[in-house]
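Good morning C.,

I know you're traveling, so I'll keep this short. The sequence:
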Amino acid sequence: MAYPYRHEKEVRLLSEHFGDLEARTVEGWKARGGYQGLAKALEIGREQVIEEVKASGLRGRGGAGFPTGVKWSFMPKDQNRPHYLLCNADES
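The tokens, ready to paste straight into the viewer:
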């Protein structure tokens, strides 16, 4: 679905499928290439995901701009018990 206010040269990366009702279901989203990142993350494993995030230079949006990959590496590696990650999603 094209929106009337969309500029002709606009390239949507995150909202490409906004308005696409078929993309609301898991099957519809997968048919449009959805969940490829999740599949890759599960394939390469925890440590490689963290290394890729570190290499990307992604940083938090808080005042300190702490490196996300470093923060993720603080999660315990022991998989014999549950772990919980809390995040503040109020940073812009």
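Safe travels,
E.
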